[in-house]
Write a structure and sequence with these properties.
Three copies of one chain form a homotrimer. By secondary structure, chain A is of the alpha+beta class. Helix content of chain A is 24%, strand content 31%. Chains in contact: A-B, A-C, B-C.
Chain lengths: 350, 350, 350
């Protein structure tokens, strides 16, 4: 099993679950159909009718649940078959696997593992920042044809910015300023301060636009990893010496970038990313994200999908780590420990 | 071996074998080239030159047979090499596998198994209805990216019509009226009468057009399976109580729909389907088939190809049968018995 | 190992290595990035950063070598990492596999095997004819989705011309005139003279254009194979009895066609082909090659890719050889001996 299954994963943004519509998504190799019931609750069932294996995502939404579009079997949101057209008896085994769901912190979550273990309180509070009332937030979904841990590596080591994103996020200041990495049992945090340095093209523009400032700046990157696959970034810049390092953000430009990296398959990832900010306003954030999607995200896709294709040529080949991989390696160790614990628990119960 | 090989399968409609043209088709994983000789006889050879494995379907048709377009080896319709350009001697082993063919009941048949066992009389008489002189018939070829037994399941259980074809073939009357299923050693027959019921959209239209009638109707579905993979459907409707149940079709609309489901590979099927009728006239049948292709057939393709893709995700997984699967399961048992018999015969002879 | 690796293979024409540009090519399953340094020397490294497996062909060319576009690691042309941004120490193991290269006889060569064994003097002199000062030569690169030995078979048995290229190269004269085949330890040569015969369409045109002659001609095909995968063809025609057979080419039309068939993968091949001639002039050769690409090469691609797809259906199946395969079989034996010798040498050293 390549994934931690007893965990909550983001399956969709609330705005992706349209009224009276079915969404087909794959989470940790589990193909599922997701919809919002008339009661407002989001449901997820395996995307397969147990009768003749028809995709349920081609089905018909009804008051009583989801009807298969092939022979019309109706399934309640809990997965139990409640109607077989033309028949009185319904075999007890006619049932679709249900995936627990919860709507929390501005995301729809799904639990691909043992449903009995699912508990809404297990959505880590680390993700609460995705839904801060004091910020304007826009959320979107991107897709990488690369393993999710490679996307996490990417976000935990921003020294790639000057090379992969030189026209926006990056300049030499990033790798010139060493980052501090804080690792504990279940989280990783990276903090980098670039003090009195030239900003990168994007930050130069941000400071001009929001602080009306040109010149050397104090710039920061705070990156937080919460397992199994959430990344929270706090990124900003302020005029050099204006107090940002001491916590005064009054003269600064900054934003929060959440990215939940849901494994779709072993070589593809759904990236539920958002940008949140107090000042930009919704339209400006959306326009900024449009540009980021066509530049920064595209660059990351080219790189990560390129890496994945090289890996696919000779899977399992060793690569070399360097000091800046510290945080990414720590995140991978946390996930490996969770996988091992899950395996042990299964061996005990089996 | 996933297919019964010692059997006749439809490889083409006669009108698909164009003069002086080669047709490449795959039957039960056997790639072959099919053409009509100047003597009017249809021939089939393996689509591979034994010399350097050139597809023979790229070849050149000549009086003496089929010439490979690579080095010009000429093969007689029986598969024997009769000429190697620039050489006098021809090695006895230079031979292409010939597939027996026969033209019967309006179809071209091919025998993918042991040629010594092929006998034109083994084309089941059950298929004679494909070539009735008293009817006008139009034949076409469709393709499903799904196993042929799944297409047979589909046709033997028409309770799917109200859900998959609600704007044409189906309404609730179908599953409200139980079907009778007749099973013997080598055939399956399903008969359903929907008496005094509202017609489905297509049948409402047919009765208006051909009987000038609006109102409750007596409607029937007679489906016959003949192994390995032929389906014959007699479908019709008449004003309620007009005598159709007793055999009087004088005030009724009906047509015959033959479908021979030739396995192409384990996950793809050629569907040689026809519509035959006494009254419609050729152009009206063709126009009806155009509409059916763009609606009913398309709907079946979406469903069956969706099911196949779900099966491909986890091959061999159990599904649940319900009472209306009775006929389809019986057809699968007949095919399984034929496969087992063929395996036993091979073990004896080997 | 399906390829002789300790050998020089053509990786590019010099004009394909553009200034300040990277070329990604695969040679014998080795993906590599090729570029010309500011010193004019062509370098080749494995197309994979050892750090996080980024394709180096997406990298940034600099004075000091090639920089990875992901985290900015700089690699010298010898493959050693010389800079890790933001770090002082560089791990000794941070190194990319270097492929020896040499520019010789008008081609860029690469050595996919043991670099210690690479020696520019091992480029066979047989290829010197690719760079004759007395001829005008145009070189191009074609691609076949077929194994390289199948392309070599094709060129060593031109009896396929009348069937595959009937509107240009071929007519019955080819297979009517037996070829002489000369085989030694490490080369194969085929020579065919078609004396006093009708020319094929292309040669009829050539004789009209360059010799102002219409009528029977003496035509020749000299094909030379030099391992691992080079083919040199001298093709021409002269008025019958005008002395060409005796070596007088003064009244003749002829050209040289070199083809180096570099294995890309086991089922794909790069074909570095050229046409050289003393009289045509550069533009006429280029126009001739445009036509050849759209006719002769296209026909060969259809045939060879067709054969490969038939082989892929049932790999390892025996085919039948005929006398005209003599040269191709001899070439395959030479390559097999080289492969066996390479395997023995590895077993000894291992």
């Amino acid at each position: 099993v390549p994934f931690v299954l007893n965990a909550w994963y983001v399956v969709a943004w609330p705005h992706e679950i349209l009224a009276e519509a079915l969404l087909a998504r794959t989470v940790c190799n589990n193909a599922m159909v997701v919809w919002r019931g008339t009661d407002g609750i989001v449901h997820a069932l395996e995307d397969r009718c147990p009768h003749r294996e028809m995709p349920m995502s081609l089905g018909i939404l009804e008051q009583g649940g989801l009807r298969c579009r092939y022979h019309g079997l109706l399934f309640a949101p809990n997965g139990k078959c409640t109607e077989v057209p033309g028949q009185d008896r319904i075999s007890a085994g006619l049932e679709i696997r249900r995936y627990p769901t919860v709507e929390k912190y501005g995301w729809i979550w799904v639990w691909p593992g043992d449903a009995a273990k699912a508990d809404a309180s297990l959505v880590p509070e680390a993700y609460a920042h995705n839904d801060r009332a004091d910020l304007e937030m826009v959320g979107r979904t991107a897709h990488f044809k690369a393993n999710y841990l490679m996307v996490i590596d990417n976000l935990l080591d921003l020294t790639h910015e000057p090379f992969l994103h030189p026209t926006s996020l990056g300049n030499a200041a990033v790798y010139e300023a060493p980052a501090e990495t804080f690792i504990d049992e279940s989280s990783v945090r990276v903090e980098r301060w670039m003090l009195g340095k030239l900003g990168s093209p994007m930050w130069v523009g941000m400071l001009q636009e929001f602080v009306h400032y040109e010149g050397p700046c104090d710039r920061w990157q705070k990156v937080f990893f919460a397992p199994p696959s959430g990344i929270y970034l706090h990124l900003g810049a302020a005029p050099a010496g204006a107090g940002a390092l001491q916590g005064d953000l009054s003269r600064s430009a900054w934003f929060i970038n959440n990215q939940f990296l849901t494994p779709e398959t072993e070589t593809s990832t759904l990236d539920f990313w958002s940008v949140a900010n107090a000042d930009f306003g919704r339209e400006r954030i959306a326009a900024f994200m449009d540009r980021a999607r066509d530049t920064i995200l595209k660059e990351d896709q080219i790189a990560l999908e390129g890496c994945q294709s090289v890996i696919d040529r000779q899977p399992g080949r060793k690569n070399y780590s360097i000091p800046t991989d510290k945080a990414g390696l720590a995140a991978r160790r946390i996930v490996a420990r969770m996988l091992a614990a899950e395996k042990r628990a299964q061996a005990h119960s089996g």
